[in-house]
Amino acid sequence: MALLILAAVARLLWVEVEAGTLVPWDFFGYFTIQTNLIAAGTLLVGAPFTGHARPAWLEYLRACSAVYVVIVVAVYWPVLAPVSDDRWTWANLVVHGAVAAAMVGDWLVEGPRAPLPRAHLGALLAYPLAWCTIVLIRGATDGWVPYDFLHPGLGYGGIAVVIGAIGAAGVALGAALFRTPPGRAVSVARSRAVAPAR
After folding, report:
1. Cβ-contact 154, 141 below 8 angstroms
2. Which of these, 33, 64, 32, lies nearest to 46 by C-alpha position?
3. What's the distance, CA 167 to chain centroid?
4. Residue 153 burial (CB < 10 Å; 0-12/13-18/19+)?
């Protein structure tokens, strides 16, 4: 799945190159591209831990990655897809669909090593807030924004409402993931730990 995500991002990059419209700073400035790359990295880093307990930092990375790509899907299809000409291409379906299913599926199958404390839900917001800050600065300076609903011309009050709504949805999803019961890997490890010696 990680390789498929990287192939999809590479394909989208190549489309820009062929069209002569590639601006690397802009292309890699999209939340979709960044979060898909985060998801691919998470899957690659986490692969050796499949079926085993993972360090806490990896559990948080998995949770954050899953939330981010689900938000990408939730925003893209109702808001951006209707005005997109390439929504049915394979690469677009990967970055705006398959990756979210894979990350949530991975979480549900492999589960966390233990439910994560909701007191740490703020960890979910660190990266999106940093991304939003940079995007708003760019929008106010060079005029580029990755998505129209973040354009300063709409007014910062409206932008704040949109960001707040998306952030609240992300925190709600994160809260559900944080409280997910331990998955198969932990269940297997526990059953082995309590198995009688032979």
Report:
1. no
2. 64
3. 13
4. exposed
pLDDT in tens, 152-168: 888 999 999 999 999 99
* Token pair listed for 112: 């966390």
Concatenated DSSP letters for 11-48? Answer: HHHHHHHHHT---HHHHTTSHHHHHHHHHHHHHHHHGG
Q: What is the pLDDT of residues 84-123, one digit of tens each?
A: 889 999 999 999 999 999 999 999 988 887 889 989 999 9
Residue 83 CA, chain-centre distance (Å), reads 22
Which CA distances in Å does 179 have to 36, 114, 115, 117, 152? 24, 9, 5, 8, 37
DSSP string, 36-82: HHHHHHHHHHHGGGTTS---HHHHHHHHHHHHHHHHHHHHIIIIIGG
Distance CA 166, CA 61 (A): 19
User: Which among 38, 22, 59 is positioned nearest to 130, based on CA atoms?
Assistant: 38
Evaluate whether 7 touches 14 at the Cβ level (below 8 Å): no
